[in-house]
Design a protein that fits this description.
alpha/beta, Rossmann fold
Length: about 290
């Protein structure tokens, strides 16, 4: 194998497509697959080879990168690819799959002779497109020389959390980080909804907190998307954020922790999705503060 591995990207949604483009820009040979092929087709212009099946995508690949909806989808797709997986290949599992399925995914890797890395990424569409994600990674030291060029192409930083990918230390950290992101996003929507209800100019609120400990770049960025009506294309969609919020709640329950804010956030996101905002940026949870006409 050369120092530029052949990479198969399974899943070319918002994040997967951006990651695949950056892999191409880094000079790696990239093959892509997506269940809805039309989402993968534009990547041909970036130099990726668009394939028709997961098996075709992974055949002979040095690294398989999965960026799909959830852990169950990942396992289903990898089973479709199983016949063509090369023993000894590296599997970088970047989907936010929660903690419950990591052991099953690692077990699949062992059964097929793959070197498994639990490697969820922190960041949304903009940093993904810029190759500025943070990769949270756990996996064996032997094999990192193969996966490092992949992580370097898609991220600005790789944070190693352990040597056993199957233990799920990276996925656990990702859920903790996402719990903060989702809570801050929900709070942004609620503060703007309350301002609207009370007839308060949002700018007065921003002026009030400016430069102090309550000010926050993320708050201003998400509020700007909402106030400027720029919810599409999403940085991170309502439907996917709801899935992550429920993973967080479930992880808490399994470990004896009640997460009221995360649970309420999941319900807000579900209501916003039911109102027609599922494919908009997650700050559209704002609309859950109002009636179905929102």
């Amino acid at each position: 194998m050369t120092d530029k591995p052949t990479v198969s990207v399974l899943g070319t949604g918002i994040m997967g497509a951006a990651m695949a483009r950056n892999l191409c820009r880094a000079g790696l040979e990239v093959r892509v697959w997506n269940r809805s092929r039309e989402k993968a087709e534009p990547l041909a212009a970036d130099g990726a080879r668009v394939t028709g099946t997961p098996a075709e995508a992974v055949e002979g690949a040095d690294v398989v990168l999965t960026m799909l909806y959830d852990g169950h989808t990942v396992l289903d797709v990898m089973r479709e690819a199983a016949s063509a997986l090369r023993p000894g290949a590296v599997w970088a599992q970047c989907t936010t799959a929660g903690t419950e399925l990591v052991a099953d995914l690692a077990g699949f890797a062992r059964e097929h002779g793959l070197v498994f890395y639990d490697a969820p990424v922190l960041g949304t569409r903009e940093p993904a497109e810029a190759g500025r994600l943070t990769v949270l990674a756990a996996g064996p030291v032997a094999g990192r020389e193969t996966v490092t060029p992949v992580f370097d192409a898609v991220g600005a930083r790789t944070m190693w959390t352990g040597e056993d990918g199957g233990a799920g230390s990276a996925s656990r950290l990702k859920l903790v980080a996402n719990s903060w992101v989702l809570s801050a996003t929900a709070a942004t929507g609620e503060v703007l909804a309350l301002a609207k209800a009370l007839g308060v100019d949002p700018q007065d609120f921003f002026d009030l907190i400016e430069g102090g400990p309550l000010d926050m770049g993320y708050l201003r960025a998400k509020a700007g998307l909402l106030l400027d009506g720029k919810l599409s294309p999403p940085s991170f969609a309502v439907a996917t954020a709801e899935k992550d919020a429920r993973l967080i709640v479930e992880a808490g329950e399994r470990n004896g922790v009640r997460l009221d804010v995360a649970a309420a956030t999941a319900e807000r996101l579900a209501r916003a999705g039911a109102q027609g905002h599922a494919d908009e940026d997650m700050v559209a949870a704002y609309f859950a503060s109002f009636g179905d006409e929102a």
